[in-house]
Amino acid sequence: MTGAGGGDAEIWDRLVPEYAGRLALDPPERALLGELRAQLAGMAMLDIGVGAGRTAYTFAALAGRYVGIDFSAGMVDRARALVGEDDRVSFAVVDARDLSRFHGQDFGLVLFSFNGIDGVSHEERLTVLGEVRRVIADGGVFAFSAHSLLALPFSSSPRRPSLRSPLRSSYRSLYRSARLAMLNGRLDLEAARQRGWAQIRDEAHGFSLVQYYVMPAVQIEQLAEAGFDEPRVFDMRGREVDPAAPGRDPHLFYVCRPRP
Predict the structure, then answer these.
(1) End-to-end CA distance of the chain
(2) What letter does residue 71 receive in the DSSP assignment?
């Protein structure tokens, strides 16, 4: 969620209550769990951007060794309180751009969920991928989600007002629509697609964060340059898709292994 240092750590510390209580895995994560469940007991797992413990709640109980990290101390405290620690499960405040404390530990599964890798610059993103390659075992699995540039332009259609607070929700909907329309107007989408990526202050947390959006083909190139084989790609419903035509889901889920 936040393990790559996206934005000020203090911002994420303040968001802990918003993420606390979220325990369900996303459909692609459930698909990954289904494939690896029989092997997890013999695996060491590094869960990057663990946030308030959403993925830790499931995976920490199943992995042979589990390490959850995040660059937000508040998030790590919440995850630790939720799951607990013992000789098999641990949490630490670590930035994904520097995994040196784990170099050579050969994690069988490295998970970076909820687009956490999208919170840093282009150059730092490549650093994160390189760091993951240095901590993953031969034959290990690296899985992460990322924003797709194919989802743009943003839909700026107003949302239906809430029946509980129609005036407030209508105002928020109109504000959101205006901001997204402005973003669409300012973004040179064709140039971004030719480059392969763009950093955009999208609507996440009230337009307070700059997020990285990437063309799937460019994401695959980045993985190859970092030393990974071509990934399998899943949409938000957990269905495997053709990377050349994955649809317009705002997030895609990549699953790959290190190249021998």
Answers:
(1) 28
(2) S
Q: 234 in the Ramachandran plot: left (φ > 0), alpha (ψ -120 to 50) or beta?
A: beta
CB 70 within 8 A of CB 79: yes
Q: Quick one: DSSP state of residue 52?
A: T
Please give the Cα distance from 244 to 141 (Å, whole number). 22
- Report the C-alpha gap between 9 and 61 in whole angstroms: 27
β-bridge partners, 211 = 200
Distance CA 108, CA 106 (A): 6
Using DSSP, state whether 205 is helix, strand or coil: coil
Q: How far apart (Å, rounded) are the C-alpha atoms in residues 201 and 198?
A: 10
Q: What is the pLDDT of residue 125?
A: 98
Alpha-carbon distance values, 99 to 76, 96, 105, 106 (Å): 16, 6, 10, 12
- Look up residue 84 and give its amino acid: G
More confident of the two residues 13 and 260? 260
52: left (phi over 0), alpha (psi -120 to 50) or beta: alpha
Alpha-carbon gap, residue 81 to 57, rounded angstroms: 11
Confidence (pLDDT) at 162: 78
pLDDT in tens, 1-30: 555 555 567 776 777 667 777 889 999 999
